[in-house]
């Protein structure tokens, strides 16, 4: 087995990975709190979808690849397959989205949360090892089964706790604390899974195909910016719609819509033809005999 490094750039990678996991979890939990306040199923589903992109795409997937920038095999080049990399993103978002939809609709119950946590944890594991499958080296990657099982347990527990937070916490301080715990769990799952791997070189592999790790920074940065902008615009649009509607899709009417103008257009159109209502009564004229 050849030597591998997980912290090529020192403490920068784990700190950056943790911050991404924290921010993604924080904004995702804020969205789930808004989902609980939604009055219609469609609005709730929309907020849960935004939360899925924030947690699955930001807290999990971006954290994974920011940490992978610190992975290096000194005796071999490290390359990434863009198709498998994007496939892992899809797995992460779908897994988190399904879990949030399960716990976000219907009555809150522990069996529902545990079932959704197992499903979401399996999806997160699929994301991690799909991303690892997309990593190419001049050799073969092997995994320690014990540590793989440990990473699976951490993933399921972390996802179950995250889903429970998603339907429970409210307020800036509780959400911040929950996001900090979620970020620790996500990073712990990732580095446990990375500790499970080892690399054996193969002299028959002359060329390693794919993108360099640092070359992935540009597309990941662009994708991150597009995701953040898209999530922010979706959240702002949803908040605007909720502000100007009564929660059920019906536009709110102004407080003085009826009082300041008693003769509304609707009333005027309902008046009989040939008679135009007057905004104020006209006093009768009096005739004086001279």
Automatic annotation (TrEMBL):
Key words, A-Z: Membrane, Transmembrane, Transmembrane helix
Domain MHYT: from-to ranges: 9-200
Region called Disordered, residue ranges: 245-290
Claim: Endoplasmic reticulum is one of the keywords in the record: no
Biased composition (Polar residues): 258-267
Database matches in InterPro entries: MHYT_dom
Transmembrane parts of this sequence: 15-35, 47-70, 82-103, 110-129, 141-165, 172-194, 214-236
Organism in which the protein naturally occurs: Paractinoplanes ferrugineus
GO CC, any one term: membrane
Protein name, UniProt field: Membrane protein
